[in-house]
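Researcher: Good morning. I'm working through a list of sequences from a screen, and I'd like to move beyond sequence-only analysis. For each chain I'm collecting a predicted structure so we can compare shapes side by side. This is the next one on the list. No need for commentary yet; just the structure.
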Amino acid sequence: MSVDIVVHSSVSVKNSLPKVMHLAKQTVTETGKKAGYSQPMISKLSSGVAKLPYENVRTLLNSIPEQYQPLLALDIAHELVGITPPIANGDGLKLDVEALGPRTIRELSQGIDALANSQDEFETPAGHVSDTKDPQEAIYQVLDALFIGYNAVIGICNEYGFSLPALMRKREKVWKMKSYIK
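Model: Good morning. Structure tokens for this chain:
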């Protein structure tokens, strides 16, 4: 199995920068001043004409109020490496908390069901499993749950004024206590 993880040296922020500027009620000019960029450069980044160099990610993140940084950061992480979920920006998904709550529950339930359907394959050594459709479906369903879940977390934080980085640090302490991470 080959691993195709590519780390890009620059990223497009056209999916998230206009949205976070809108949420933050921040103009292109204001964002440019805070980031040390010209208004035309922010416009180019917003439209996808220009890409953000990796070394300037922190500067752009700092130009956005902390509350909205996770949305931009998720998009940048997805664009840089491609193994984190993208931001939800399509017309097929409502991003308000009232809609995301039930949708997240549905996606998590589907992930749990798919994992349960794969249990017999998981209990068999991988080399002895001839049909891997169930484990692959479990991956797809868990990825769907992660996509919806991460976007829901960002939406809930925005709605209620929580700091996602602060909450993440608190959870990391719990995960360390449980020896999930070092």
